[in-house]
């Protein structure tokens, strides 16, 4: 991986701080449960996002499961969700016994298309799970205006520090969920945090994965009988991982500012190539997290367009790092659409209810299909220098012919 002195200095600074916190925690045997720095991190992260409460979890997937539980999503409910996401946004819906109803994205920004909410909502719709994919904020004003009467969960696993209209993503819906997994800009190695403004939801988030945390009121009435057990799940974070995440949180704005600047410079390099279009953001949006790089769409109908794989190969041969879409077309997988198909796969040999006479049809999501097939992600390095930018400025036009 290409690196720079600036980046090396940054890593040295942050890694030293992380090691110091880790050493302190080990020396003081604060390696399990909820030592004071865990609750401090929960408070700091929630405050950073603009919410009153934060609850850490062992991973981001658990935050989404807990959020759906907190909102009361269960058997027979429908949950609106974009298919342009990682499967961890979808599996918790299926595992709650609910049905994911897939929404298409806006072609230009690759964010959830709010008009899809009206199109796909039914009387069974209980919630919407918004994903701020690759750090690009979804249009929260339009989404919230259409989501009346629905629970709203924001999956901000790629979008730490991103904003919509100056307000942090994760603070619009009832629950904001963040992965703190190792590739995320705030990382506990493995971990997650859910934020909410609502006391009742905070208590239900705790109930989901934090038995024994009832003494502080999380499991007071009407959950008092559950104070010692919660739901029986233990999904708490490893405090040692949070020793690292607290340092990343401290530097998040600095990293996001560096990546914003770099994205602008890369966009200038991409601009003259008529068949490559940087994926846009809405005017109200400021990207954050920048997970996976800078997305550019290949305009496949342009007569000079290369295929995505040919461009990827040319860039790799030139030493320029780029990647194709990392996830899959879940809306084309019957078991990700139809709960009965999924149950048959998960519980082979067990008698289950008769399959429906008509199989559940796979949804038609043309912009999602295009984004998955035609997007390339140009690598971004926080604190890259002029030399790094020059390599792209020379190499990209050459690769594009
Ligand atoms: C969009 C999205 N949601 C949820 C998750 C789940 O996070 P975790 O891997 O921490 O469980 C991820 C993980 O990368 C993700 O990309």
Descriptive overview:
This protein is of the alpha/beta class. The chain has two domains: 5-249, Aspartate Aminotransferase, domain 2 (3-Layer(aba) Sandwich), CATH 3.40.640; 252-328 and 365-400, Aspartate Aminotransferase, domain 1. 39% of the residues lie in helices and 14% in strands. The protein is built from 13 helices and 14 strands. The chain has helices at 5-27, 36-49, 60-70, 91-95, 115-120, 140-146, 199-209, 239-270, 308-317, 334-337, 339-346, 366-374, 386-400; strands at 53-57, 78-82, 99-103, 125-131, 151-155, 163-164, 167-168, 175-179, 192-196, 276-278, 285-286, 294-298, 322-324, 375-378. It has a seven-stranded mixed β-sheet with strand order 1-9-8-5-4-2-3, sandwiched between helices. A four-stranded antiparallel β-sheet has the order 10-12-14-13. Helix 1 packs antiparallel against helix 8 (239-270) and helix 3 (60-70) crosses helix 7. It is globular. Residues 59-61, 85-86, 88-89, 131, 155, 157-158, 179, 181, 192 line the site of pyridoxal-5'-phosphate (PLP).
Q: Secondary-structure map with pairings?
A:
Blueprint: H1 5-27, H2 36-49, E1 53-57, H3 60-70, E2 78-82, H4 91-95, E3 99-103, H5 115-120, E4 125-131, H6 140-146, E5 151-155, E6 163-164, E7 167-168, E8 175-179, E9 192-196, H7 199-209, H8 239-270, E10 276-278, E11 285-286, E12 294-298, H9 308-317, E13 322-324, H10 334-337, H11 339-346, H12 366-374, E14 375-378, H13 386-400
Parallel strand pairs: 2-3, 2-4, 4-5, 5-8
Antiparallel strand pairs: 1-9, 6-7, 6-11, 8-9, 10-12, 12-14, 13-14
Helix pairs in contact: 1-8, 2-8, 3-7, 8-13
The protein binds pyridoxal-5'-phosphate.
Residues 59-61, 85-86, 88-89, 131, 155, 157-158, 179, 181, 192 line the site of pyridoxal-5'-phosphate (PLP).
């Amino acid at each position: 991986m290409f690196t720079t002195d600036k980046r090396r200095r940054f890593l040295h600074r942050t890694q030293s701080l992380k090691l110091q916190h880790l050493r302190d925690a080990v020396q003081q045997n604060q390696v399990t449960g909820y030592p004071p720095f865990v609750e401090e991190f929960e408070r700091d992260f929630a405050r950073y996002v603009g919410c009153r409460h934060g609850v850490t979890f062992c991973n981001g997937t658990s935050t989404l499961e807990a959020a759906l539980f907190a909102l009361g999503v269960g058997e027979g409910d429908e949950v609106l969700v974009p298919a342009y996401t990682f499967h961890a946004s979808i599996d918790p819906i299926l595992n709650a016994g609910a049905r994911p109803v897939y929404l298409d994205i806006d072609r230009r920004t690759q964010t959830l298309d709010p008009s899809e909410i009206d199109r796909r909502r039914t009387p069974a719709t209980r919630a919407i799970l918004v994903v701020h994919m690759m750090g690009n904020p979804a249009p929260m004003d339009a989404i919230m205006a259409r989501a009346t009467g629905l629970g709203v969960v924001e999956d901000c696993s790629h979008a730490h520090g991103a904003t919509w209209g100056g307000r942090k993503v994760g603070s619009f819906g009832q629950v904001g969920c963040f992965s703190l997994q190792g590739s995320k800009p705030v990382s506990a190695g493995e971990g997650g945090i859910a934020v909410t403004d609502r006391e009742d939801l905070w208590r239900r988030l705790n109930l989901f994965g934090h038995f024994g945390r009832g003494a502080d009121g999380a499991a007071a009435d009407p959950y008092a009988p559950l104070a010692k057990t919660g739901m029986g799940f233990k999904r708490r974070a490893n405090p040692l991982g949070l020793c690292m995440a607290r340092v990343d949180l401290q530097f998040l704005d600095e990293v996001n500012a560096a990546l914003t600047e770099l994205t602008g410079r890369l966009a200038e390099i991409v601009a003259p190539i008529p068949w490559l279009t940087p994926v846009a953001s809405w005017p109200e949006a400021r990207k954050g997290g920048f997970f996976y790089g800078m997305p550019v769409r290949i305009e496949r109908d342009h007569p000079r367009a290369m295929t995505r794989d040919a461009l990827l190969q040319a860039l790799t041969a030139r030493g320029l790092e780029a990647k194709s879409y990392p996830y899959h077309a879940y809306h084309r997988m019957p078991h990700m659409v139809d709960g009965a198909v999924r149950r048959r796969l998960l519980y082979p040999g067990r008698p289950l209810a008769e399959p429906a006479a008509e199989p559940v049809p796979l949804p038609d999501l043309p912009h999602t299909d295009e984004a998955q097939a035609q997007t390339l992600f140009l690598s971004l390095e926080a604190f890259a220098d002029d030399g790094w930018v020059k390599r792209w400025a020379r190499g990209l036009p050459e690769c594009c012919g």
